[in-house]
Amino acid sequence: MSKVFPPVGRRRVLEGAAVAVVVLGLLLWWLLPLGEAPPSGKITFSTGTTSGVYYEYGSRLRTELADDMPDLDVDLTASNGSQENVARVATGRADFAIAAADAVAAYEAQHPGSAARLRGVARLYDDYVQLVVGRDSGIHSLADLKGKTVATGLPRSGVRLIAERVLRAANLDPVKDITAVSEGIDTGPERLRQGRIDAFFWSGGVPTAGLQKLTDSFTFRFVPLDADLVAKMHEQDDATGYYRATNMPESAYPTIQNGSTVPTIAVSNLLMTRTDVDARLTEWLTRTVIKSRDGIGAHVHSAQLVDLRTAIYTDPLPLHEGARRYYRSVKP
């Protein structure tokens, strides 16, 4: 004879569901990194000019951090670029920032005391030096810049640092041989379109929004920066060893390059912090940087180049302890 089971009451069903929710919550808690709740608090993240890649990347990363650490308040601040970012982190005005390796090395040489507190989180992607002129310009080489009005980047920017080094490597005095103006990617493209400058330097990931926008209203081209410049730049001082000769890919600005690469100079970008920034927070942030590569990369092309295998190479900065913990945890 078959056994008859009594009907399950509504209360028992609800109690069972509540238990299942608790068990699921405990399971998710256990699966969290280190079995802990996400870090909370507030950090300041210094980026760059609003039309540059640093700012766009930082904005996208803040969204990803909000998903992973909802109680972490990220204050995103604009800046003139790499040199200002390094100084902000070193002096405690920012907790995290993006900066080019050459700017980090230059700061270390000038401020060895405060630079000792700097630490790396991840190597992100490369900046490409871009010397931009109008399509019909008579400027075809660096030598042709003599006597011209040239935007060399904002004060304390990475662009200013590298532009002046490029000019010196070409035997041009940035003060005497050109009329240098302080324009960055936010204003330089429009000044060029208006004919108020003859050329401008930009150093950033490709494509950069400020230059992409210019393609809609103005046809420009890139002046090639040949490989022999890099050797001359390396001779300037110890902080210039982070430059390397390369080619800007033909896919950077397709309507401008028409399938051709552009000889230029590259330098790596670093996500950086300071020794006193909490290690657990830095570990979580490093994890978010790596796992959000594809999501951010769908909007910021440069971010597609963030790679777990190369992220640990933050030279000239040693890795922050929190970042080191993350990389060890995912080491095969």
Summarize the structure.
With 332 residues, the protein is of the alpha/beta class. It has 14 helices and ten strands. Helix 2 (53-68) links the parallel strand 1 and strand 2 (72-77).
What does the model show?
- The protein has 332 residues and is α/β, with parallel strands linked by helices.
- Helix content is 39%, strand content 20%.
- Strands 1, 2, 3, 4, 5, 6, 7, 8, 9 and 10 form a ten-stranded mixed beta sheet that branches.
- α2 crosses α11 and α11 crosses α14.
- The longest helix is centred in the first third of the chain and has 22 residues.
- The protein starts with 9 loop residues before the first helix and ends with a helix.
- 45% of the residues are buried.
- The N terminus is likely disordered.
Percent helix, as a range, is 25-40%
Kindly estimate the percentage of residues that lie in beta strands according to DSSP: 15-25%
Mean pLDDT: 91
Mass-distribution shape: globular
Please report the distance between the alpha carbons of the first and last residues: 58 Å
Labels describing this entry:
14 helices, alpha/beta, 332 residues, 39% helix, globular, single chain
Spell out the blueprint of helices and strands.
Elements: H1 10-31, E1 41-46, H2 53-68, E2 72-77, H3 82-90, E3 96-100, H4 101-110, H5 112-115, E4 118-134, E5 149-151, H6 158-169, E6 179-181, H7 188-194, E7 199-204, H8 209-214, E8 220-222, H9 228-234, E9 244-248, H10 254-257, E10 262-274, H11 279-291, H12 293-297, H13 308-311, H14 321-329
Parallel strand pairs: 1-2, 1-3, 5-6, 5-7
Antiparallel strand pairs: 3-10, 4-7, 4-8, 4-10, 9-10
